[in-house]
Write a structure and sequence with these properties.
Layout (H helix, E strand, L loop, with lengths): L1 E8 L2 E8 H13 L4 H11 L6 H14 L7
Length: 74
């Protein structure tokens, strides 16, 4: 199921939609990197291409993480 989530990035609120499985993997990545989930989302947002949306960037980050062996930063 796709759910809407909200986060504050650089002082402004934003929302994005993610499937529960991607949301769970983002939490796992944040825990593995010993960082808050909000910090991980902000980092991904900072490094995404200007013409992409945050939801897609988050999904691609999870995919890269898993393809790299789920323990190595993409």
């Amino acid at each position: 199921m796709i759910r809407k989530h909200s986060a504050t990035l650089h002082g402004h609120r934003t929302s994005f939609s993610l499937e529960d499985e991607f949301w769970g993997e983002l939490k796992t990545i944040a825990a593995a990197r010993a960082m808050p989930l909000a910090a991980l989302i902000s980092e991904i947002d900072d490094h995404r291409p200007p013409d992409s949306n945050l939801s897609s960037a988050l999904r691609l980050h999870v995919l890269s993480w898993l393809k790299a062996g789920a323990g190595h930063q993409p």
